[in-house]
Structure formats: C-alpha cells, structure tokens
Amino acid sequence: MNPKRALTQLTTRITRYADTVSGGRPTLSWDDIAGALPKERIQSLLIRVKWAGESQFWPDLVWWALRELWPQEWKTQDPRRAQRLLELALRDWIDPGICHRCGGHEQDGRCVLRTRDKKHPFRTCPTCQGTGIRRARSGRSMAQIIGIDEKTWRDTWSARFAHLEAVLNTLESQALHTLEKNLENNDHSNI
Ligand SMILES: [Zn+2]
Questions:
Q1: How far is the CA of 165 from the centre of ligand 1 (A)?
Q2: What is the arithmetic mean of pLDDT over 35-63?
Q3: Does 50 fall in a domain?
Q4: From the CA of 126, how far away is ligand 1's center (Å)?
C-alpha cells in the first residue's frame, strides 16, 4: 500500500473486525499501520502530523525537532527564536503551499493557466512563474516572526532555514520508505 494512503487511515481507526466482515482483499488495520511506523520518534511524528493530519502531535513534534534537528553550534541569544524558526520550517514543509492562481496545474513540466487562444491554449502562470509554488514569505516577514532584524536573517538565519527544509525532506522520504517497507513485510506475513 502507498505509505501516504496508509497514513490517512490512522485517523479513521478501521478495526480488525470491520476488515474481517467487509470480505474480499484484506485491508490494513489501524494497528498494522501504527505498528509499521518508523521507530525513530521524530520520523514517525513528522509523517503522522503531515500525512495523517494528526495535529494533536504538533507540540510533541516541535519539541522533538528542537531537540534533534537544531544543531548545537547554531547560537541564538533567545531560545524562543530557535523554536519560531523551526515552527516556520515545519509549517512550510507540512503545507508547501500550492499557487492559488493555477492550483499547480502542470503542462509539459510547468504550471499553466488556460487561455482562449486555440493555438496556444496554455500560458505559464505569471503568479508563480510556472513553479506551482505559492510565493515564499519575504525575508522581512520571516525576520519579524523570529524576532531578528532583516540583516541577521540574510546573514545567518536564511541559511539555517534552508538547512532545516532539506533535513525535513530527507527525514520524510526516509520515514515514508521505512513505512512502505514495513507494510510490505506485514503483507507477506499475513499470507
Ligand atoms: Zn501558479
């Protein structure tokens, strides 16, 4: 089963009983999926909050992220700033934001809008410039949220933000891969 689809089942709590009476192809139960989650707490929290929509784990996730993802050598005068940056990185990663104008509708590898011109029925979306991504927050607003000045954002914090984004994406693919593997093993053991 697709690991992302499996995760959505965590919020619906399908029981083993329901699985047995529905007949046909056995589906995975809540316990199967929960049991197949990665053992690393941070990885499991990341995919549960993002793909299962279990926002009740948000405080846990922030706490673990601060503990595990914030490098010791990243100094800050105010520890709350670390938390704010991490929260921003996590929120953007959970909801990367699809362009409102084109809805991320892709044609030949770029995001487009329909036109009335029959010869050229599509044009590159001018709002996102074909990327499909909602325009990122400005450095100014990032600095404001974190509580630093714009220069400090540019000099130090923007690179930290980019680093965190990369780490989150790596952890996510590792976590989904582990879940997928564990679910497959689970399937085999049921035959
Ligand atoms: Zn667009």
A1: 22
A2: 94
A3: yes
A4: 6
CA of 111 to the centre of ligand 1 (A): 6
On whether the CB atoms of residues 147 and 81 are closer than 8 A, the answer is yes
Which of 160, 170, 152, 181 lies closest to 35 in space, CA to CA?
181
Between the CA of 164 and the centroid of ligand 1 the distance, in Å, is 25
The whole-number average pLDDT for the span 155-173 is: 96
Q: With respect to residue 66, please indicate whether it lies within any of the assigned structural domains.
A: yes
Range of the domain at 75: 3-97+134-190
Residue 111: inside a domain, yes or no? no
Query: How far, in Å, CA of 90 to CA of 154, rounded?
Result: 20
Q: How many whole angstroms from 113 Cα to the centroid of ligand 1?
A: 8
Cβ distance 179 to 8 under 8 Å?
no
Please give the structure tokens belonging to residue 5: 């689809």
- In the chain, what percentage of residues exceed pLDDT 70? 90
pLDDT, average across residues 24-52: 87
Q: Dig out the tokens for 176 from the structure.
A: 């989904």
What is the 138 CA–ligand 1 centroid distance (Å)?
A: 18
Ligand 1 center from residue 50 Cα (angstroms): 23
Q: What is the pTM of this model?
A: 0.73
- Selected residue with higher pLDDT from 98 and 25: 98
**pLDDT band per the 50, 70, 90 thresholds, residue 190:** low
Tell how far the Cα of 34 is from the centroid of ligand 1, in angstroms. Answer: 36
